[in-house]
């Protein structure tokens, strides 16, 4: 896919690790200019160094009031336009509703749902003016079915799915493509996987995905011909029993 995104500017949230990092690396390799958002400036700078080209580092807490809008404003000030938004930042809070912490739920909704809404709203005027653009939101298999262990998390991802479908209908006449990528188990830090040996074992038994596998799916979505929209892409480990 080398060169397929040349001339395009992309904003990736949650870019400091996991799916966001892998997607940013893949997009840069395809020629895109990158604005990288995440909570850890040090980790974002490490990603920028890995990319090996000028990348804009935008540390931010997207749960804070005005956080999403500030990130978009800084990216626009630096690059003049945003052609691609990968709204990937997310929080995972499982557990029983009866004993759950509503404050944790509030923060999860702020990042997984509200930040997506607000960031999309901030990038849309420029995309509409240019009559082109791509928006990819990281959903989850939990956005397509509900798991006993994570009812509140599943609710955030169902909200994302509804938003993506409605948004796509609104902006399709403006030449903007909108889709979601919905992975099953991804073997990264969000899900508690830090040891490469453990990751490799799960991959070998077809029980988990690498972040790079999801990034490849996102790149497939972004590199289709302009007349093709991938509305939903569900990607699962071959041996995950769902």
| Domain module tally | 1
Poorly predicted spans: none
Q: State the CATH superfamily name.
A: NAD(P)-binding Rossmann-like Domain
Do you know the CATH topology? Rossmann fold
Q: Helical stretch count?
A: 7
The structural class is alpha/beta
Helix percent reads 40-55%
Shape: globular
Intertermini distance: 31 Å
Could you state the order of secondary-structure elements as H and E?
EHEHEHEHEHEHHE
Question: Gyration radius, to the nearest Å?
Answer: 17 Å
Provide a brief overview of the structure.
By secondary structure, the chain is of the alpha/beta class. Helices cover 44% and strands 15% of the residues.
How are the SSEs ordered, and which strands pair?
Elements: E1 9-13, H1 18-29, E2 33-38, H2 41-51, E3 56-59, H3 67-79, E4 84-87, H4 102-130, E5 133-138, H5 151-171, E6 176-183, H6 196-204, H7 211-222, E7 232-235
Parallel strand pairs: 1-2, 1-4, 2-3, 4-5, 5-6, 6-7
Could you characterize what this model shows?
With 242 residues, the chain is α/β, with parallel strands linked by helices. It has one domain (9-183, 210-235): Rossmann fold. It contains 7 helices and 7 strands. It has helices spanning 18-29, 41-51, 67-79, 102-130, 151-171, 196-204, 211-222, and strands at 9-13, 33-38, 56-59, 84-87, 133-138, 176-183, 232-235. A 7-stranded parallel β-sheet has the order 3-2-1-4-5-6-7, with helices on both faces. Strand 5 (133-138), helix 5 and strand 6 form a beta-alpha-beta unit. Helix 1 crosses helix 7 (211-222), helix 3 (67-79) runs parallel beside helix 4 and helix 4 runs parallel beside helix 5 (151-171). It is globular, with a radius of gyration of 17 Å. The two termini are 31 Å apart. The model has no long low-confidence stretch (mean pLDDT 94).
């Amino acid at each position: 896919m080398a060169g397929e995104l040349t001339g395009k500017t992309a904003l990736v949230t949650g870019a400091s690790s996991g799916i966001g990092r892998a997607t940013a690396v893949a997009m840069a390799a395809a020629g895109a200019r990158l604005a990288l958002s995440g909570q850890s400036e040090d980790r974002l700078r490490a990603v920028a160094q890995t990319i090996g080209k000028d990348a804009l580092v935008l540390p931010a807490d997207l749960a804070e009031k005005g956080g999403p809008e500030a990130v978009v404003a800084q990216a626009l000030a630096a690059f003049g336009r945003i052609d691609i938004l990968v709204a990937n930042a997310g929080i995972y809070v499982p557990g029983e509703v009866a004993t759950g912490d509503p404050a944790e739920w509030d923060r999860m909704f702020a990042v997984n749902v509200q930040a997506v809404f607000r960031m999309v709203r901030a990038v849309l005027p420029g995309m509409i003016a240019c009559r082109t653009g791509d928006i990819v939101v990281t959903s989850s298999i939990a956005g397509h079915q509900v798991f006993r262990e994570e009812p509140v998390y599943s609710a955030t991802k169902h909200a994302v799915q509804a938003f993506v479908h409605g948004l796509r209908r609104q902006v399709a006449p403006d030449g903007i493509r909108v889709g979601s990528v919905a992975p099953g188990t991804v073997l990264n830090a969000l899900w508690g996987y830090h040891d490469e040996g453990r990751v490799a074992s799960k991959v070998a038994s077809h029980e988990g995905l690498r972040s790079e596998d999801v990034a490849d799916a996102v790149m497939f979505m972004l590199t289709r011909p302009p007349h093709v929209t991938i509305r939903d892409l569900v990607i699962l480990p071959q041996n995950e029993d769902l």
